[in-house]
Amino acid sequence: MTFNIDKVPAQAGKVAIVTGANNGLGFETTMALAKKEIEVVMACRNLDKAEEAKAKIMKVNRKAKLHVMELDLSELDSVREFAGAFTKKYNRLDFLINNAGIMMPPFSLTEDGFESQFATNYLGHFLLTKLLFSTIKNTPEARIVSLSSLAHKWKDIQFDDINFKKSYSKRDAYGQSKFACLMFAIEFDKRLKEANINAKSLAAHPGVSATNLFNNMPKPVAWFTSIFGSFFVQPAKDGALPSLYAALGSDLAGGEYTGPEGKGEMKGDATIVKPRRAAKNEVMADRLWSVSEEMIGEDFVVQ
Is the entire prediction scored with pTM above 0.90? Predict the structure, then answer.
């Protein structure tokens, strides 16, 4: 079955958070959710760019309910400040779209001492989900969508050097971060079901989509993409469909992974796709959960 966003009914009264909502997949996801009458909190690092994105959406949808809030996922204190501000203002959260990410930058450690891709793409979202969990739990049929990538196949979790301090490969570090997102989504859904909590955790990937994540790609890859991209790269609007399917699809039970249905899952309509087998390794998932708790300095108990 493929997903048709046009057949999804209005969702007036519901609230969503989209991280990284100011461009690319996050912008298109926000645009689509607002069109379904969902109130969207645009959680962004750069407030000026977020306000510009909000204005663009309001220009085509004057009834859109959009609120910009500051969030830098690479800094744990910023995540805590955002979560505190959100829970003061809202008593429900129907959709948490853990979308924001960076791709293959030069090596750097965050202020908290974590490799930048792991911190931004995964760990910040792990903490965000944990801090918003009581609100999620009190919202009937809430959904949490974690953005993974085809790159999740590139690297397992490097537990012996999770921050790549010994030897840095930006490709491997990106793959690790996206594998962690996928593994977390599946493990979180399992724990939600075990605790009989009326919420669903899912993962999605956009295939190969035209976003600013390509900015740090090697020059030969960027050149090839600019010449031949139309054959295997889809617009960000289409790349957002798997995330929207994970959030709004009526046929999903939780724990699924969504992505494009085309060859190699690079482009096409959104459907359910298969993660690699290691993503469902419960021993590894449990270890990742424990390591993540140690890194954020907080327990994340699902009950």
Answer: yes
